[in-house]
Amino acid sequence: MLSAVELTLFRGERCLFKGLNFALNPGELLLLEGRNGSGKTSLVRALAGLIELESGEIFWDGESVRTHRQAFHAALVWMAHRVGLKADLTLVENLKFEAHLRTQSGEDFDEVLKRLDIDRLKRLPLRALSAGQQRRVALARMLMSRVPLWLMDEPFTNLDREGRTLVMELATEHLERGGMCIMAAHQDVEIGGNVQKIVLQ
Amino acid sequence: MTDHDESLGTFSGMFGIIRRDLLLAWKRPGDVMNPLFFFAMVAALFPLAVGPSPEQLQFIGPTVLWVAALLAMLLSLNSMFLSDFEDGSLDQMLVSPLPLSALALGKATVHWLTSGLPLVLVSPVVAITFQMPFSVTGFLMLTLLFGTISLSLLGSVGAALTVGLHRGTALLSLLILPLAMPVLIFGARTVSLVASGDGVAGGLYFLGAYAVLVLSFAPFATAAALRISNE
Predict the structure, then answer these.
(1) Which of A49, A85, A100 sits opposite B95 (nearest CB)?
(2) pLDDT single digits (tens) A104-137
(3) Is the pLDDT score of B3 beyond 70?
(4) Which of A31, B64, B124, B140 lies 20 to 30 angstroms, CA to CA, from B231?
């Protein structure tokens, strides 16, 4: 379970959010909404521990993530705005590297690729893939790692209609399995289950 | 600290990085060749400018080779974390449950394997242009071996500190040079001493000890620097 207490973050002079509280239980989705530049990405980065918060504390399973960084990072996977994959390497080589960084779910690799409709692209270097296809590879990384918490920053960017539906399906399945998901999005999201919303001004 | 994560060892990420980055270097050989080419060019042009006198060439040889090696290493440092920073891989490494210092050590290892080791290997060939005797060449390689290890590790700290800055190359050199000075001084002087037939054990011990010292703190400093500069 993830909880955040009195989070405050400034970027330069601007206060992005102040005194933000939430708690996320297994099976719940937290939707972050707000205009461009309202601080959705910053909040996700802060939750991932990449930005130092002005004040406030994040707890994972009751332990502060400041002192238990590794346990927290072992529990999350983050689909960032930039895919974080190497353009010169093939899909398989990229995902093989990911297997060194995170515990794997043991799901069948080929099944995952087939489900994401990228199984034909295995041998191509990533730079030959379209932006949407690269996002699908990032999704494959999420599916291949066995973690309870998904952080998704604008997961629908560059994806076609089928892709967007697929992301919602995958997130729904993840929640049904007792996973948690934090999603920053400005599209309408149709995901079943327990949804909380935070609107950043 | 891998108690919650049986399948991943502490060094799993390090080996992963080494494998991946060597593969990348293999696919883009230009990045490896550039510093090497620079080293060979500088070292090959000097004898042409200085003139063919063997005494003079033998006298300046160690100095020129060492300065060229140091500059070649500096040249390649900037790119150590740059592509990872730009494509978001660095973010992904920072949220990995593995100790970041092990990943940083992996990056420095790859840098040494692709920039330092090639310099060590081509140095005997380049040394021929300075009419360096074979007995001296062996010591040149040995000092470069220890020296480039130190430089790659020191460089990883500087590269991590300047990764968020655009065009941080000048700043990076400025940060690294003071710490790299002992390596240059002892490296070049040791080879000169061999050439003049003096004892060299002291210089080699120093270079070895310096490499071990840097190895013991650089990965941790690099990890801390990456967390700061990637905000």
Answers:
(1) A49
(2) 877 888 888 898 888 898 889 999 999 999 999 9
(3) no
(4) A31
Interval B47-55 mean pLDDT: 87
- Is the pLDDT confidence value at B36 over 80? yes
Decide: residue A81, CB within 10 A, 0-12 exposed, 13-18 middle, 19+ buried: middle
A52, A73, A87: residue with CB nearest B95: A73
Count of H helices and E strands in chain A? 6, 9
Q: Do A50 and B94 touch (CB under 8 A)?
A: yes
* Spatial separation of the C-alpha atoms in residues B126 and B229, rounded to whole Å: 38
**Exposed e or buried b per residue across A132-166, where buried means at least 16 C-beta atoms within 10 angstroms of its C-beta:** ebbbbbbbbbbbbbbbbbbbbbbbbeebeeebbeb
Using an 8 Å CB-CB cutoff, list chain A residues near B5.
74, 103
Between chains, do A80 and B91 touch, taking CB under 8 Å as contact?
Answer: yes
Q: How far apart are the first and last CA of chain A?
A: 26
Q: Cα dihedral sign for B207, B105, B226, B162?
A: positive
Kindly indicate whether the ipTM for this predicted assembly is greater than 0.85, answering yes or no. Answer: yes
Asked whether residue A90 carries a pLDDT value surpassing 70, the answer given is: yes
Q: How far apart are CA B67 and CA B185, in angstroms?
A: 10
Residues A167 and B93: their CA atoms lie apart, in Å, by 24
Over 70: is that where the pLDDT of B184 sits? yes
Model confidence at B142: pLDDT above 90: yes
Cα of first residue to Cα of last residue in chain B, in angstroms, is 24
Q: Specify which residues A94 forms β-bridges with.
A: none
DSSP letter assigned to residue B173 = H
CA-nearest of A93, A96, A95 to A125 is A93
CB A76 within 8 A of CB A123: no
